[in-house]
Amino acid sequence: MPSKSLNIGMIGYGFMGRAHSNAYNRVHNFFDLEYQPVLKAACARSETEVQAFADQWGYDSIETDWRRLIERDDIDAIDICVPNNLHREIAIAAAEQGKMILCEKPLAMNSEEGEEMCQAVEKAGVANTVWYNYRRVPAVTLAKRLIEEGRLGKIFHYRANFLQDWTIAEDLPQGGAALWRLDVAAAGSGVTGDLLAHCIDTAVWLNGSVKDVNAMTETFVKQRQHTLTGKVEPVGIDDACAFLCHFDNGSLGLFESTRYARGHKALYTWEINGENASIKWDLHDLHRLEWFDHGDEGKLRGWRSIHVTDHGGDHPYMDHWWVPGLQIGYEHSFVHQVADFLQSLATGQPCSPTFRDALETQKVCDAVLNSAKNGSWQAVG
Ligand SMILES: NC(=O)c1ccc[n+]([C@@H]2O[C@H](COP(=O)([O-])OP(=O)(O)OC[C@H]3O[C@@H](n4cnc5c(N)ncnc54)[C@H](O)[C@@H]3O)[C@@H](O)[C@H]2O)c1
Predict the structure, then answer these.
(1) 27-61: pLDDT as tens digits
(2) Of these four, 26, 109, 149, 377, which has the most CB atoms within 10 Å of its CB?
(3) Which of 64, 82, 355 to mutate to test the pocket of ligand 1 (most atoms within 8 A of CB)?
(4) CATH class name, domain 4-133
(5) Prediction pTM value
């Protein structure tokens, strides 16, 4: 039974506000932890909207100004679920108030901002984590274990894609609610910070640091009406990005992301080729890990599809859910991150990725965007 409460102050009620609230509400039903999240207050600018959100998800109270929220004595942790241009200011102010921070990805608009945020949480000594939730899909966590056991041998290749198709229409506006991702002032970048950041975080976690990158980006639709100004304005984000890289371990990386891959909604895939084995994963089939082991007997050698649902500690996190063979989904990766964050408070260990861990991804994103601009290889800062 939990003996300690962790009072959450949630900022933002959109996609991630819902995903995180669901995770806070469910975690104690499935994980036996010392700390229990309490949905203390939700914050957004519109009182009506945030009250409706608070009622639906069970928050005790609301705020319409995030500054007021972080000043409240009854809030222990601030959860930042707002567009990227607000992460820095809220995180630094929250750290100064001594609040723990769970911040959505990407950490910041760029690595200079990210560094300031790291320094703020480190100076304040507050617990912090960034929601790179794909690390906590059981199949991805299992891949991490297999790699750490050395089963792949020397790694030669890492390749990842994140493909969508929702911005092809030229009359889709930019800016404002839901469309802030197309507005460079709110998002910082396009697919690089939004989608490739996930691919890079997973890659760095599984395969180590990236040394240098060579990238190209494209903005297919050059101007769009801005919903806030009503004017047709230039589009400053990258609609598509592809890059090559060298990892510190000598392997070669190939990454691609676009919102113009007709037919693909959220096709996040990665594959790693090692000397002894290869391994691959697909978000559309997220409970499976594909595994090829060259050490298998010749006549049986081939790709095997592991249904990552077993108990007994074989498959990460799965002992907490249903019976072996029954799969879980996307939202559970957030429940796992909450569980790991709460566990980290009990043990005093950091909950990865911390702000400092996530800064590494931010630096790769910066190098990718600089390389695309300069047309040259770019070292990761
Ligand atoms: N981990 C993931 O897989 C994942 C997925 C989607 C989004 N994200 C990240 O989560 C963050 C939010 O994205 P989203 O998809 O939830 O966006 P969204 O547009 O669905 O929601 C944004 C929320 O921010 C609120 N907001 C905007 N300005 C505000 C302000 N000044 N004060 C208070 N609230 C304000 C809006 O009212 C809205 O509730 C972004 O940083 C995004 O990159 C991460």
Answers:
(1) 999 999 999 999 999 999 999 999 999 999 999 99
(2) 109
(3) 82
(4) alpha beta
(5) 0.98
